[in-house]
Fold these 2 entries.
Entry 1:
Amino acid sequence: MTTTEKTYAGVCVTCNEQGYLTNFEQWNKDVGLAIAKEEQIEMTDKHWEVIQFLQEQHKKQVPLSIRKIGKSGVVSIKEFYQLFPKGPLKISSRISGIPKPVSCI
Amino acid sequence: MKQLLILGAGTSGTMMANHLRKALSKKEWNITIVDQEETHYYQPGFLFLPFDIYKTKQVKKKIEKFIPKGVKLLKEKINRIDKDNDLVVLENENILQYDILIIATGTNIAPQEIEGMLGDHWQKSVFDFYTFEGARNLRNKLRTWEGGKLVVHISEMPIKCPVAPLEFAFLADSYFINKGMRDKVDITYVTPMSGAFTKPIATKELGHLLEQKNIKVVPDFNIERVDAENQKIIDYGEEEVAYDLLVTVPTNMGDELIERSGFGDELNFVPTDKTTLQTKVKDNIFAIGDATNIPASKAGSVAHFEAEILTENIQRYIQGKELKKEFDGHANCFIETGHGKALLIDFNYTQEPVKGTFPFPNVGPLSLLKETHMNHMGKLAFRWIYWNMLIKGKHIPFVSATMSTSGKQLETTNNL
Ligand SMILES: Cc1cc2nc3c(=O)[nH]c(=O)nc-3n(C[C@H](O)[C@H](O)[C@H](O)COP(=O)(O)OP(=O)(O)OC[C@H]3O[C@@H](n4cnc5c(N)ncnc54)[C@H](O)[C@@H]3O)c2cc1C
C-alpha cells in the first residue's frame, strides 16, 4: 500500500491512495473540517453528530453500513444523503478519519 | 449425560456435528442437531444453475446423509433460544435443554426489506439466485429470454459469498456469447460499494475484466426502492437504473429466531468474538458460519476454517481452559470469470488478496488473483470436495485453518 503525507489544518497526517487517514490517532476536529472542505461539505452540528457516531462505531470495531446509520437514531438514510450527497458513507468516513468501507476483494 | 445442541444443519452445523462426534466422549455427551429442511443444498451451485451448467439434482441431497451416527437429527423449525434458562423452544412448542449451544442458522435473503422488491413481478422480471427456487426460476427465464437490459445488483452489504454477484455477471457474459446473442444483452453491475473491486491490489489486477467483458458498473448505489411498473431501481440519492431483467441479491439477514431470542444486531446476526467464536450473548453459546456478525466473509470455506478452531475451543471450554483466540478471518474463494476460467483469492482479516501460487509456494497448481483454466477446474472440483470432505469434517490436505503467507507476493501490500 502506498501512503502519502498530507497536511490538514497544520497537522501532518498519513493518507492512503484514496485520501483516507491510515491512523485514526492523527485525526482531530480541524483535520476533519479541512477534509470536509476538500469534499465541499459545509459542516453543521448535524454533520458532526454523524461523524461522532461513525467514530464510536469504528472504535467498537463495528462494520459500518447505510442501514446502521439509518437505525442509529442520529439521522435517517434520506437525511444522511442530504448531509453528504453522493456516496455519503464514503465521504463521511473520510471526514471521520476512519477507513473506507470495503468488500473482500 | 450432558447435552450439546447445534441449531442448523447447513454447511457449518453439519461440519460441527461431524467434528464434535469424534472429539467428544459418547458416554458423556449427547449431540443433537435441529434443522427445518429435508434437503442440504450446495449453495455455491446456485451460481451455475441459472446458466444450465449444473442440474438441480447436483446441488441437493438429503440432509441426514451427512449427519454422523451418534448424532440425533430433529427436523423441526426452531422458534427461539431462552438463553437465561439454557433452553431452545421449537415451533411445535417442544423444549430442548442444553449445556452447550452452537448457533449455525446461517443467513437468508430478505427481499421484503426493500420497498417494491416483492410483488407480482417477483420471480418474473425480478429474480434472486441465492435460493434454490430463485436460481431454478431464473434458469427457466433465461432459457427463453430474448435479451435487453440485464441488471445484476447487490442491495446492501454484508451478503454471503460477496463475489457471487460479480461471478454471475461474468458468467452471464459467457452464456450470452455462447448463445450467440451477446449483442442483444446489455449487462450492468450495480453495487453499494465504491466499485466492483474495492481492495487496491484486486482493483489493479482485475479492473480490466469488466471492461473486457463489456460490463458497465454503477458504484455507490444504495437502493431505496424497486419501481417495478417502470422497470427501474432507484437509490437514496435519486439515481435510477432501468432494467428489463433484474437479478438482485436482496438484503441478507440472520433467521428471525435470533430476533425472537432477544439478541442479534439490526440484521439478526449474532454478536460473536471474531477470534474465539464464543458469542457475546452467554459463555455457553457459540456461533459459526453465516449466522455470526464477525467481519469475515460469509462463505463455506470460512466456515470450514472456523469449524476446526471452534471444535478445539469447545473442548477447551469443557475442560475449563482458556479459549484459543486463533481465528484470523481466513477465506479462500474461487471466482468464476466465464469462458472456462476462474480466479482464486486467499485472504484474512488483515491481509488483502494478493498474487502468488496456492497451496504450494511457487508451484501452485492454482494461481492467486489470476484468471486460469486450472482455477476453474478447482472451482468445479469444490463441489466434490464439499459433498465428500468439507461437510463431513475431513481436513482438506495442505490448506490450514489460519492463512499462510508462503507463495504470496506480499511486498507491495499491507492491509488498509
Ligand atoms: C449463490 C451462492 C454462491 C456461493 N458460493 C460459494 C463459494 O463459491 N465458496 C464458498 O465457500 N461459499 C459460497 N457460498 C456461501 C456458502 O454457501 C455459505 O457461506 C455456507 O453455506 C454457510 O453455512 P452455514 O451453515 O453458516 O449456513 P447454511 O448452510 O445456510 O445453513 C443454515 C441452516 O440453518 C437452518 N435454519 C435456519 N433457521 C432455522 C430455524 N428457525 N429452524 C430450523 N432450521 C433453521 C437452515 O434451514 C439451514 O439448513 C455461496 C452462497 C451462495 C448463496
Note: Residues 90 and 100 of chain A are 6 Å apart (CA to CA).
Entry 2:
Amino acid sequence: MLLIPCPYCGPRPEIEFRCGGEAHIARPQDPAKVDDAAWGDYLFLRTNPKGVHAERWVHTHGCRRWFNALRDTLSDRILATHAVGERRPDPPR
Amino acid sequence: MAQTYRLARGGRIDRASPIAMRFNGTTIEGYAGDTIASALLANGIHFVARSFKYHRPRGIFSHGSEEPNGLFAVDRGGARIDPNTRATTTEAVNGLSLRSQNHWPSLALDVGAAVDVFSALFAAGFYYKTFMWPRSFWRQIYEPAIRAAAGLGRAPTAPDPDRYQHAHAHCDVLVVGAGPAGLAAALAASESDKRVILADEQAEMGGSLLHDMSSTIDGSSPWSWLEQTLARLHSRSNVQLLPRTTAFGYYNHNHLGLLQRVTDHLVNPHPSGPRERLWQVRAGEVVLATGAHERPLVFPGNDRPGIMLAESLRVFANRYGVLPGQRAVIATSGASAYTVAADLLAVGVQVTIVDVRRHQDCAVEAAALRGAGCEVLAGHTVLSSRGRKRVNALLIAPIEAAGPIGARRLLPCDCVGLSGGWTPAVHLFSQSRGKLTFDRKLDAFLPEASVRGESSAGAVRGSYQLSACLAQGWRAGAAAAGLTRERHFKASATRTGFEPVRLLPAANRQGHAFVDLQNDVTANDIGLAVREGFRSIEHVKRYTTAGMATDQGKTSNMNVIGLVAKTLGAAVPDIGTTTFRPPYTPVTFGALAGPSRGRLFEPVRTPPAHAWAVRHGAIFEDVGQWKRARAFPRANEDLQAAVTREVTAVRTSAGILDASTLGKIEVVGADAAEFLDRMYTNRLSRLAPGRCRYALLLKEDGYVFDDGVVARLTRDRFHVTTTTGGAARVLQHMEEYLQTEWPELAVYLTSVTEQYATIAVQGPKARQILAPLVEELDLATQAFPHMSVRTATICGLACRLFRVSFTGELGYEINVPADYGQALWDALIESGKALGITPYGTEAMHVLRAEKGFIIVGQETDGTVAPDDLGLAGLIGRGKADFVGLRSLARPDLVAPGRKQLVGLASEDARTVLEEGAQILADPSEPLPMRSHGHVTSSYWSPSCHQPIALALIADGRSRIGQRLHATTPAGVVAVQVRDPIFFDPTGARVHG
Ligand SMILES: [Zn+2]
C-alpha cells in the first residue's frame, strides 16, 4: 500500500485516497467550440507512461481535498505532491 | 507411544513440562518446547504423510517453514481445525489432536497409493493431455473426479469460533528474522532512540544459534550470547520483540504484513483474546535477515521417511534433544553437512558421509571427521534408497574419473541427511521489488539493489560465516537507525562452500527422483516439460506444478531452475526465478478477515423509523449499506398483497415512507447558483427562493449520473437531494469540479444526509394529515404549490418542508433533525389514523413511480443512457452554453438514429408480468442469433391500472409507440404493445391535489 503525502495532512496510507487519473488535463474553456475529435481526446485519451506520471489524487477519507502527485509508475515511488494550482515541481533526478 | 528416541539430556525443551497429544488416535508424548515434528520423531514416528500425487509414504523433511511433507489437520477442539498445518512450525501443546491427510482408509493402508504403480500415466501435464476427450466427459466425469482427488487437507465446515485481530504499527526500523544477523541488527539499531521492531517466525528467537553447540561469539557459547543479547533487547524501551510472528508480505513503501500467532501455543488461552494478530507495519527502514534454506539432493527414492535435510538432523538433535536415528548417512555436496555429522557423532549416532565432491575438494573437513571416527566417502554418488515405510539403506557408488559409476555398495541406515547447498531466502526482498543478481560462486540469487529503505544482512545475502552475519547485521541495523558505530564480532569459523549438483550422477536412473516433494514433481517431469517446448521458468512451473504448493517450492526452486538451465544448456541467470509473491507462508483466512465478519462485515445503516418498521413486521431490502423497509405485510399477506394494499392506500388516502436514506447536500455560497448551473442540466439560477426543481446530473461523457430535487432555500443556499446509492459519489463529483476546475467559485458543499430525517407523506389526504401539525404555514396550493419548499415548524420542530411527489399524488417530504425522525413519524401516524394513513415500503414506492413513468437512476440507466434517451431532454436548460456533459450530448453517437429510448410496454395477454432484463424482439421466428431491440428495465403488476406494466429501453422506441413487439420470458415469448411510459394519470392532475 502506497504512503501518500497529502499536501494538507501529511503522509497517509493509500486506502484514504482515490486516484483521479492523469493531471493537467484542462477542461476546455468553451466546450461548444471544440470539435468532436478534440472533445473525444479530452474525454478519453490519457498518457500511460513508464516512468514519471503526473496524476491527481483526492484525500477522500481525510481532508477531502484534491492535489497533484508525481509518481514513478515503474517503482511506484511518489516523487512529489503539490496543491492544485501550485507549480508542478521538477522530479528529482 | 514413548519417547524412545529422546536423548537423555540436552536440547531447549522443558523436561519438567511433559505433554501428550494424539496422532491418528495414538497417544504420543513430548515436552514443552517441542514442535509437532520433534515430538513425533522423539516417539520414533517417521512415516507421517502420504504425498500429493503418488500417495507415497513421507516423513518429516525439514525443521522449519520450508516443510513440504509433514502437513497435518491440527484439531484444537470444537471447530478449531486447521488443515495443511506444518508439523515443523507448530508448537506441541498438551491435548492437540493431529491427523495425517491425503489417504484412504488410513495412513498405513492407502488405496490412492495405487497411483504410484501407474505413475507413468501421471507425468507432467497429465491433466492437460488426459482429460481432453471426449469433450462431453469434462463436466460430468473428469472435473468432479479431479476435484475429489485434488487438494491435501479438508477445510473445516463449522464456523471458526476464534477471534482474530488487526493491528497497525509504525516504526523506524523493522528487523525481520532473529538469527545472528537480525539480532545484531536489532542490537545496533536499539542503541539509538529510534523505535525498533524485531519479528521472528519461530517460538524462540535465535535462528541458527538455537541449534549451534560448537561456535563461539566473543568467547561465549551461542546460547549464552543469545541469552545476553535478548536480555539487552528486552531491557530497551524502544524495542518491541515479536516472536511467533511471520513477515509474510512486503508491499509498497515499506508496508509489511506480519502474522502473529498469539495463543496456539497455550493450553488454555484466555477466551476473549485473539488467536492471531495481523500486523500492518509501516517501517522507515527494513533490515531483512531472513536466512537461507538448505537444498536437498535429487536421486531416485530421495523421498522416503527418514530422509531429511542434513541441517534438520542437527536441529532435532541439538535443539530438541531428539535422536533422528541410530545409523545416519549424510549425503552432501557441501561443507556444512560435516558440522551436522560432528554433532550427530557427539550424541552417539553412527555416521557415514557420502560426498559427491572429489577428494581434493573436501579434504579439510573430511580429515577432521575421519579423525573423529566417521567414515567419509568422497567422490561418491547415491543411486537410490531402500525401505518401505522408512529408509533402511542407501545404494551408493564411487564416481570414477572417467565418468561411469563404479561398484555399488549398500549402506544400511535408519536416517539420511541431504545437503545440496543453500538457497538464500530472498522472498521478502524480491516482493519489495528489489533487484536480484545471480552469484555463480554461491550458486544463488542474491539481493542486489534495494528499492528504498531496505537492507539485507547475513545468509539472505549469501554470507554463511557467523562472524560475517553478525558484522553485516550490526552494520545494517546501525545504518537503518542513522548510526555509524562499528562493532567487531569475534566468532569461530563456520564450514561453508558447496558444489551445486542438480541431479546426482547415475548410469541408469530408475524410479522417481523428486525435485519438488510437496507436488510430487520429478527430475523427469522437468526434462519432459523442456522437451515439450516449455522454455520460460514461469511456464515450466505452471506445467509441472513445481513450486506451486503451500511450501511455494522453498526447498525445490533452485534445483528446478538449475535443471531447466542444464537441460537447455543455458546459464542459470538466463533462466531467472519465478516471481516471489506474498504470502511467504500460508496465512489463515481468519487473520485476513480479522474482526470483519458477521455483524461487523460491513456497517449497517438504519434510517430513523427502522425500529418502528421492525416492530411492525416490515420485511427489508439492502440498498447499499442501508436497511430499507421493502413492505409492511400484515398477517396472511404475501408481498404482492401487501404492495397492492400499500399502493392503493397512497392512491386513495395517504401513505407514509421513511425516505431518510436519500442523499442530501447543502450547497452554500455567493456562487452556489452559478455552480449548480454548471453541474446540472437545468438552469437552476432562475429558480426562485422557495421553489424546487427535478434536476439531472450528467458525467462529462453526457450520460445520466444521478438525479434529485434541487431546492433553493435562500439566494445563496440550496438543499440538493441525490439517490440513496449516489449520495457519496455525487458529493465527490461536485467537489472534484469545484476544486479542480472552478476553484474561484465561492461555494461550500456539506453532506447533510445523516443530519435530517426525511418522512414522505403522499396521497390525496396528505394535506389533511399534515395541517394540524404545521404551525403558521398555509398549506393551500395557491400559497404552497407543487415543487416548492418552506422552512416551517412541525410539532414544534424546525423543518424543511418540501411539496414534492415521487408517486404522482399530492405529497410532502418533511425534513427534521434526524433524532426527531421517529417522533415525527409517530405524530404523523397518529394524525392520519382516521384518514387511513398507511406505511409503505420501497416496493410500493417503485410501483407508484413506475405507474407514473418516473425513472430510477441505475435501473432505467446503466451509464450509457443520455437525457434524451429517457425522454428528459426538456430538463436541459434552454440556451445554456455549458454544463458538465453538455458538449458530449452532441457527440456523433449520441445524436445518431437507433438509440434506445424509454417507452412503456403492456403485455397483450394483460396477465404476464415481464422479467426485468427481458430482451425485446421484433420477430420471434427470426433465425438465431436474433437481434435484440432492447430490454425491460422495470416491471410490476400495477394495482392502480389493474394490469402488468413495464418500462423498457428500445431502439428508436418513441417512433415505435403503438407497435407490437415481443419480450422473452422463461416460458417463451409474449407479445407486448409499445406505449407511452406514463401509465397512470397521464395529465398529471393529481399532484396538484
Ligand atoms: Zn489530506
Note: The beta strands of chain A are 3-6, 10-13, 18-22, 52-58, 66-72, 78-83.
